[in-house]
Amino acid sequence: MNSQGALEALRRVSKVAFGQEHRLELMLAIAASEDGVCSLTELADTLQVRASSLQRPLDSLVELSLLSIVPTGDTKYRHYLRNDGPAWDWAQDLATGVDVARPVDAVAP
């Protein structure tokens, strides 16, 4: 999602589907990771949002077992590992159906 309109549309769908505007965007970024390893800081930088906007959705993905916390040694960053599952493909399918022209209240869950 490169255009501002497309990003806003993606966030509208995320808000309807998850009750949080960054979760779908977050899932897409994690799904796109080649090795499936990420950190909150990396994701915030990639998505150009505050890390605090992603903390709750990231914690939810851990709680749902879509991500696992990677045991770390001497790093100050917590890393997460993407677990296999259909949710990642579903997020991509959901994003594929995003219609930039639809108003916020026309987006159906």
Question: What features would you describe in this structure?
Answer:
By secondary structure, the protein is mainly alpha-helical. It has a single domain (4-96), classed as Orthogonal Bundle (Arc Repressor Mutant, subunit A), CATH 1.10.10.10. Helix content is 52%, strand content 10%. It contains 5 helices and 3 strands, in the order ααβααββα. Strands 1-3-2 form a 3-stranded antiparallel beta sheet. Helix 2 (23-32) crosses helix 5 and helix 3 (40-47) packs across helix 4 (51-63). 22% of the residues are buried.
List the helices and strands and how they pair.
Blueprint: H1 4-18, H2 23-32, E1 37-39, H3 40-47, H4 51-63, E2 67-70, E3 79-82, H5 86-96
Antiparallel strand pairs: 1-3, 2-3
Q: What fraction of the residues are assigned to beta strands by DSSP? A: 5-15%
CATH class: Mainly Alpha
Shape: globular
Summarize the biggest pleated sheet.
3 strands, antiparallel
